[in-house]
Design brief:
The chain is 47% helix and 10% strand. With 306 residues, it is of the alpha/beta class.
Length: 306
């Protein structure tokens, strides 16, 4: 595995472009990855829920991971989801297979580690078994909301980070609560675990608390503006607040008919991709497409205001 430093900043949740026949469009995927990198992101979270994770075959997930590593070419680190399959053996093998693709960490969806009814003690035990079975593979955790939303309590997270002895390096946090994020950061102090907030509304506040950055759906609409906020929130708090207020204002556009809307938005940005989705997602009406174009123009204007 590669073990590049995980820097503070933006880690977009990488979409999967498809052709109109439903097959992965790899030229568009490469263009999309280059678009993220050109907009100043510090890492790539590929093969995640926004990638339409559960609609991909195991072979497709690995192919996307290898392609992301190849395109990144050491410019930014790449993390991808593992621990997927229909049995414990399949889930463990998926961790090894992802690591062999050259990613910088294999991210474990918390909802895949134990069943929904399992308590924190069972989660701790399962994570311990995974650590023991995966040698020196660097890991991450993702509070993925599908198939069920499992949040990792601050005290438990601190225990896991200390158990991992530096091998737990990445957390995509989806609690959407700045007070809980503060508790998680305190619990994990000194462990090397970096917390990337998936919630846009609490982004600036979480950065001020010590979060490493942002990793969420909004990075598929304005990764450059998010990268600017992550870079300027200490030195230019007025600009950071201006950006955060803008993000809060337009968040409903981000959420609307995602991920199809994101694919159409990125096409407006010059990424040559279709809006085909394997996940169920309604098409945008003519009126909604006009609104999307207006949204795009305002994002461009906001970028020119820096």
């Amino acid at each position: 595995m590669n073990e590049r430093e995980f820097k503070d900043g933006v880690w977009p949740v990488v979409l999967t472009p498809f052709r109109e026949d439903g097959k992965i469009d790899f030229p568009a995927y490469r263009a999309l990855l280059e678009y993220y990198i050109a907009n100043g992101v510090t890492g790539l979270f590929a093969v995640c829920l926004s990638s339409e994770l559960y609609e991909l075959t195991a072979a497709e997930r690995l192919e996307l991971a290898r392609e992301a590593v190849a395109v990144a070419a050491g410019r930014v680190p790449v993390v991808t989801c593992g621990c997927l399959g229909n049995s414990e053996a399949e889930k463990l093998q998926s961790v090894f297979d992802m690591a062999a693709c050259g990613v910088d960490a294999v991210v474990i969806p918390a909802c895949q580690l134990v069943p929904q009814e399992a308590d924190d003690a069972a989660f701790r035990e399962a994570f311990g078994r995974l650590l023991a079975a995966t040698a020196e593979i660097r890991l991450g955790l993702y509070e993925c909301p599908v198939p069920y939303h499992r949040l990792v309590a601050p005290a438990l997270l601190g225990e896991l980070a200390r158990m991992a002895k530096g091998r737990l390096a990445f957390l995509k946090d989806t609690c959407c609560d700045a007070a809980v994020i503060a508790e998680k950061l305190a619990a994990c102090a000194g462990t090397g675990l970096k917390l990337y907030n998936a919630n846009l509304t609490t982004c600036l506040e979480s950065l001020e608390l010590g979060a490493a950055g942002y990793s969420g759906t909004s990075a598929n609409f304005y990764p450059g503006l998010l990268s600017e906020e992550c870079a300027c929130f200490r030195g230019d708090p007025a600009r950071a607040r201006e950006l955060q207020d803008f993000f809060n204002l337009v968040q409903r556009h981000v959420e609307f008919k995602y991920p199809r809307s994101a694919k159409l938005f990125l096409k407006e940005c010059g990424v040559p991709m279709t809006d085909f989705c394997r996940v169920a997602c309604d098409r945008l009406s003519g009126e909604q497409l006009i609104q999307l174009k207006t949204f795009h123009s305002h994002v461009e204007k906001m970028g020119k205001g820096k």
